[in-house]
Amino acid sequence: MTTYARVLRSGGGGFGRLWLGATVSLLGDGMTFLALSWLVIDQGGVGRLGLLGVCFTAPVVLGGMAVGPLLDRLDKRTLLICDSLFRAACVTAVPVAAAVGDVPTALPFMVAAVYGLLKMVPLAAFPAAIPQLVDEPDLDAANALESFSFSLATVVGPASAGVLVGVIGAPAVLLIDAVTYLVFAGAVATVRRPLPPLRRVAGAETPTGRWSLKAVARDRAIVATTAAFMLFNIAEGMLLLVVGPWLAKNELPGGAPWLGVLMAAVAAGELGGAALAGSGRAGRASVRRIGLFQTGAALAVLAVLGAPQPVVVGAGFFAVGFLSAPMTVWAQSLRMRRIPPELHGRSFAALRTLMQGTSPLGAAVAAPLLVHGGLGVSVVFMTALAGLPGLYLLLSSDRAADQPADLRSRCSRAAVSRGSSRADK
After folding, report:
1. Number of domains observed in the structure of the chain
2. Best label site of 7, 270, 356, 376, fewest CB within 10 Å?
3. Closest to 419 measured CA to CA, from 129, 205, 141, 201
4. 227 and 373: one domain?
5. Which residues, in sequence order, are CB contacts of 274 under 8 Å at separation 6+?
6. pLDDT of 119-175, one tens digit each?
7. Do 184 and 217 belong together in one domain?
8. What does the DSSP assignment read for 296-308?
């Protein structure tokens, strides 16, 4: 716990305030989809939920590609504050419309599209800001805290919204979400340390635009871990979006309540795994260690074959969360150490967009596989899809991870530049 306390005080307490604001905002985001879904159902029935889901997810790719260059050119505090204030205004439009009359049919879809378009602003800006606020040995702990926020929001946000929609109504829940954006904006405004784009040193080559992403793409460790995570996310999407609900309805005694238990088990595992990843000594973010935990998480999926025993299945879901969280923490620390700081905005936006975009593919694959192949075939497919990339990482040499010649040398020069700019302030 002393490690986390030290990290929260990093940057003159700036990291702690940024993390707290982001956590509150994520909790609000966790309420938004459920509240908008309820509005859409009231207005036009269940059939329009598919369109709402498209509005939430399709713009993410476009926004993710656009936000990266902005993060490498603008102060991250300014960008986060503007993003939060704009989204607060958009979300507030729904309760205002409800207060003065009926909510226009198109408004929930417009709010969802704005959310999807700007989703990558905080998701890329936060990790890009971490190395500017936290000392290098504490990167794992800082990334573990970010993972903790995601897991907490996944459980508490939708659960709170489910209760509050029935008590105060969906528009009022969206007003709460708008307040969380304002809290985030206020927290960012209190970060005293500037978070400007990092400059190159005199005489060093400046990677820009397309060339910069090509440089990142030449790093074998980054490419390998990103590809492995994309495949893992497909398998996890199958498990959480389709197989879990199917098990709760058809295989587990007790029905629907068990779906909530399974999702809670994954989130509890993620919280424990993130705490494990961030509390150890620095330098644990090796490619082989990431591969070991990904292989273990893939094997944990086999516990689903223990249905209809709910304890066995629940333990498997917990293990998937517990083993997958350290993968995320260590891989993010690995990227922060390997990618030159002046490329963090573009790189994190691009990589997170790629990885997050694969989960819906799992839902598309899982349904026909369950229908035509049954549970056994689906579980074996998920295990292989997630596990084989993990084995590849586990069996690969760490030499490339420890000595990234081109990118690491530029990162060192940029670190010198960053130190100079900090000393000047």
Report:
1. 2
2. 376
3. 201
4. yes
5. 144, 145, 147, 148, 151, 325, 326, 328, 329
6. 989 988 998 899 889 988 888 989 999 888 888 887 788 878 888 888 999 999 999
7. no
8. HHHHHGGGGGGTT
